[in-house]
């Protein structure tokens, strides 16, 4: 039985189910003699026979177990089942040792017929590959086997031929390709040209014989490696990690937050809605809107969701078409606005932060200027009234598309934005300039007194 297994005559099949053991010998061997070196001349090394259920005809057959030791390797258990009723037989091996500390990979270059006769121990967890044919036998797809290189190839051929009749009836094209591949596998057994056999076993319990042992085998490369967590889990060395239940992070982009506040107009209780919005090709901003149910007052404000940029930003946009008024505009609290054609300039913090359209911000400017209580009434200067009327008339022309003008946004903090409809390409109507802030601008932003690097050095303990 052992000679058959070593020669490579291994047939795949389901494992047998043990039913009742044969009478045990009167005296059990000593533990140190349980695993004896494999040898055909050792007459005392006899297999243990167990009556087992045949999984083919469901009658009783015989399973033979042999505990042996492979030289320069380790202890294994060879089991062979045969049924005298239906003729079914099956041979497999199991490692009798523990899983090794490292995985092992054997890379054998088969050049001659002698290499086909090398003994091979392939465990269940080993993957077998032949790169020249792009052929692979995955782990746990076959039972372990004590065989030879030729036996491994013969076993693969038998497995492929097993379902060929059914494939020819249902999928003739697939069956034809498998027949062609079987021919290539059979050609490997003749060693017409060298090929590579790779056995990769994360358990470290597979083995390929070195006929020159203890000398180095130049045709065989043995590599030991550390297992990955996935391989540890596959071998059962660590429990499958349950999916981590990560706390659900609130996606502020898809949720409107509300908090209680007072109306800035009538001081009645009101609610402010806040939402985080990602502006394409820019950054995240926070939009806050308050709607008072008592007096109907509405306000909206925009806060930058990021830090002060390293450089200031100046955006110059040329208004040439009424469609330009539909472009989105984000004006931060630190941004000033200028319209040279109207000789108009809006200082920093006036109107606050706004996320609107160009038309919306021009109307806000018109309302701010024309409804200023200090420029209206009996005490107003007639000359000033004429200037305001002229300003309002020109602004109406811009809003109606009858007048071209430049709209300039200057933000030292770099947190303002003007929509580029050609993005990511340059906009021919828009010019964006980045500049170094002056000391006065840094002072206005409070950056001169802000120390972010090395702030904890040179500080003596206060007593």
Walk me through what this model shows:
It is a single chain. The chain has nine helices and 26 strands. The protein has helices at 2-7, 113-116, 149-162, 164-170, 172-189, 229-234, 358-370, 382-400, 439-445; strands spanning 17-21, 36-37, 48-53, 60-69, 75-82, 89-95, 103-110, 119-122, 127-130, 135-137, 145-148, 195-201, 207-208, 220-225, 257-262, 269-278, 284-291, 298-304, 312-319, 328-331, 336-339, 344-346, 354-357, 405-411, 417-418, 430-435. The strands form six sheets. Strands 1, 2, 3, 4, 5 and 6 form a six-stranded mixed sheet that branches. It has a five-stranded antiparallel sheet with strand order 10-9-12-7-14. Strands 22-21-24-19-26 form a five-stranded antiparallel sheet, with no helix packed on it. The longest helix has 19 residues, at 382-400. Residues 1-32 have low confidence and may be disordered.
Count of discrete alpha- or pi-helical segments spanning 4 or more residues: 9
Calculate the terminal CA-CA distance, rounded to whole Å: 90 Å
**Oligomerization status of the protein chains:** single chain
Low-pLDDT ranges: 1-32
Structural class by secondary-structure content: alpha+beta
Helix coverage percent:
10-25%
Rounded to the nearest angstrom, the radius of gyration is 42 Å
Fraction in beta strands: 25-35%
């Amino acid at each position: 039985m052992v000679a058959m297994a070593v020669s490579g005559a291994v047939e795949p099949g389901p494992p047998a189910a043990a039913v009742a053991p044969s009478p045990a010998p009167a005296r059990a061997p000593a533990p140190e003699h349980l695993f004896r070196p494999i040898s055909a001349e050792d007459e005392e090394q006899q297999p243990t026979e167990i009556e087992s259920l045949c999984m083919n005809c469901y009658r009783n057959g015989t399973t033979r177990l042999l505990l042996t030791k492979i030289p320069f390797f380790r202890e294994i258990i060879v089991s062979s089942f045969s049924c005298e009723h239906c003729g079914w037989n099956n041979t497999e091996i199991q490692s009798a040792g523990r899983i090794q500390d490292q995985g092992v990979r054997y890379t054998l270059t088969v050049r001659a017929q002698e290499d086909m006769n090398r003994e091979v121990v392939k465990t269940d967890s080993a993957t077998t590959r032949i790169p020249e044919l792009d052929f692979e036998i995955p782990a746990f797809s076959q039972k372990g086997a004590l065989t030879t290189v030729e036996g491994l190839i013969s076993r693969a051929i038998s497995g492929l031929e097993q379902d060929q009749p059914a494939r020819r009836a249902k999928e003739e094209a697939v069956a034809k390709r498998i027949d062609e591949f079987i021919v290539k596998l059979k050609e490997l057994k003749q060693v017409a040209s060298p090929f590579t056999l790779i056995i990769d076993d994360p358990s470290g319990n597979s083995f390929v014989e070195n006929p020159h042992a203890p000398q180095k085998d130049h045709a065989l490369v043995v590599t030991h490696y550390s297992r990955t967590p996935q391989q540890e889990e596959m071998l059962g060395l660590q429990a499958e990690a349950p999916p981590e239940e990560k706390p659900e992070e609130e996606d502020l982009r898809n949720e409107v937050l509300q908090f209680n506040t007072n109306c800035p107009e009538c001081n009645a209780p009101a609610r402010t809605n806040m939402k985080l919005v990602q502006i394409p090709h820019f950054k995240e901003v926070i939009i806050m809107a308050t709607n008072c149910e008592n007096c109907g007052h509405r306000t909206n404000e925009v806060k930058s969701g990021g830090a002060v940029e390293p450089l200031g930003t100046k955006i110059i946009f040329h208004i040439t078409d009424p469609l330009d008024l539909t472009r989105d505009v984000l004006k931060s609290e630190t941004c000033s606005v200028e319209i040279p054609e109207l000789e108009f300039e809006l200082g920093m913090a006036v109107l606050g932060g706004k996320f609107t359209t160009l038309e919306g911000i021009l109307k806000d400017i018109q309302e701010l200027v024309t409804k200023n209580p200090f420029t209206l009434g009996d005490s107003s200067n007639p000359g000033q009234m004429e200037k305001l009327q002229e300003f309002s008339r020109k602004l109406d022309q811009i809003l109606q598309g009858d007048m071209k003008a430049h709209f300039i946004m200057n933000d030292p903090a770099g947190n303002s934005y003007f929509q580029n409809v050609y993005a990511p390409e340059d906009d021919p109507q828009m010019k964006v300039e980045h500049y170094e802030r002056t000391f006065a601008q840094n002072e206005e932003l409070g950056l001169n007194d802000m120390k972010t690097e090395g702030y904890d050095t040179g500080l003596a303990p206060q007593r």
